[in-house]
Amino acid sequence: MSYLTIANVSATYGAMTILDGIELSIGQGEMHILLGPSGCGKTTLLRSIAGLTAPSGGEIRLGDRRIDNLPPKERGIAMVFQHYALFPNMTVRQNLAFGLEQKRLSRAEVARKVDATLAMVALEQRADMRPHQLSGGQRQRVALARALVLEPALLLLDEPLSALDAQIRKRLRDELKRIQRESGLTSILVTHDQDEALTLGDRVSVMNAGRIAQTGTPREIYHRPDSLFVAGFIGDGNLLTPDEIERLTGIRTSGSAIIQPQDLRFESVNGATATMAPAPDGEIHVQGVVTDVSLSGPTIRYLVEAKGLTLKVEAPNRYDSAELSTGTTVRLALRKGDIHVVPN
Ligand SMILES: Nc1ncnc2c1ncn2[C@@H]1O[C@H](COP(=O)(O)OP(=O)(O)OP(=O)(O)O)[C@@H](O)[C@H]1O
Questions:
Q1: Please, what are the domains in the chain?
Q2: How large is the angle between the packed helices 107-120 and 92-102, nearest 10 degrees?
Q3: Cys staple from 258: which of 24, 41, 53, 237, with CB 3.0 to 4.6 Å?
Q4: What's the rounded Cα separation, in Å, for the pair 76 and 294?
Q5: 51: region left, alpha or beta (phi > 0 left; psi from -120 to 50 alpha)
Q6: Which atom, in ligand 1's list, is nearest to the CA of 207?
Q7: Nearest Cα to 206, choosing from 268, 217, 48, 105?
Q8: Which residues contact 242 (CB under 8 A, 6 or more apart)?
Q9: Residue 294 in contact with ligand 1 by CB distance below 6 A
Q10: Is 246 in a helix, a strand, or coil?
């Protein structure tokens, strides 16, 4: 059942249409990701939900209330931005308590909620420090805690991790997922980082030029993109035209198709069989030559020239697996079922 319902929401700046009839339903407790290229309207949609931007049309409902005609304060929504806006002269504890004190809760109640939230974000040890004594990642956790402590009906996160360096970002991403699950808070997170979207999201909406191109689970978005835009934006797959697919595999498809790099397998190398497994039925074999090799953490990425096409191929980067050098002749194997035709 839909908890947040966005119906035909549009927004304009002057003569420019920024959001064009957005339709979106989000379930209670869901972590929903808005993903898309710069300028596609992600932040404008988030601000429209929060009440910081007035949509030019449409309706937004949260629970059983219509909220698009309410002032921001009455919507029960908390927002965390890319750059934490903490009070610099207050301690962590005071930063968290501030919003609760505004609501005129008793001192005991404020202390109880602040302590519980500090424990949730693992900052009990930092309660009496001021923001300048904390790392970037810790400060962003305080910003998150300050939103959580208010127990909002909806949490909006606008690129909350993008100002952090890669390592902290990854750690905080895992932590954010845990905190969101534990708190059960319905959340919408904006990002232009597809790894972040696919790791964090229960469902993901890919936006393009003020519209939602596709909404689905991370697996659906990754394996079954339903447009060339989503196929091109997500992952790093081999997106081929029908003519190219036919040249490569002998199969005629009804439209362009995507083949993921990890679905192409080295079947033989320099004429010698590379795998012990027998070739299953319905496998297609293609001869090619390795033209580029690069290591990418857990995978080795190859470019293989085959039938005049350059294919991306990915293999696990195991310590004991031999890395193929450029110029090596290989035979690639591919299952028919791994050629995914993109509908439009
Ligand atoms: N206050 C404003 N006045 C005029 N145009 C604006 C204003 N705010 C945003 N825009 C325009 O609206 C479009 C969408 O902006 P928005 O910030 O929603 O995009 P975004 O998808 O969040 O992008 P990014 O990932 O770069 O933050 C952009 O073309 C932007 O130039």
A1: 2-233 (3.40.50.300), 238-341 (2.40.50.100)
A2: 130
A3: 237
A4: 49
A5: left
A6: 21
A7: 217
A8: 252, 253, 254, 255, 256, 257
A9: no
A10: helix
State the closest ligand 1 atom to the C-alpha of 36, by its place in the atom list counted from 1: 21
What's the whole-number average pLDDT of the chain?
A: 91
- Chain centroid, CA 36 distance in Å: 9
Bridge partners of residue 313, in order along the sequence: 302
Q: Are 115 and 142 in contact (CB under 8 A)?
A: no
Q: What mean pLDDT do residues 90-105 have?
A: 92
Residues 6+ apart with CB under 8 A from 100: 109, 110, 113, 114, 149, 150
DSSP code at position 320? T
In 246-298, the DSSP E strands lie at 257-259, 265-269, 272-273, 283-296
Give helix 166-183 / helix 107-120 axis angle, nearest 10°: 130
Residue with tokens 């028919």: 336
Least reliable range by pLDDT among 116-130, 214-228, 264-278, 296-310 = 264-278
Number of H helices, E strands in the chain: 9, 19
| 47: nearest Cα among 95, 13, 96 | 13
Task: Find the length of the chain.
Answer: 344
Q: Is residue 13 in contact with ligand 1, taking CB distance under 6 Å? A: yes
| Nearest alpha carbon, ligand 1 atom 3 | 13
ipTM computed for the complex: 0.93
More confident site: 278 or 239:
239
Degrees, nearest 5: CA angle 219-224-227? 130
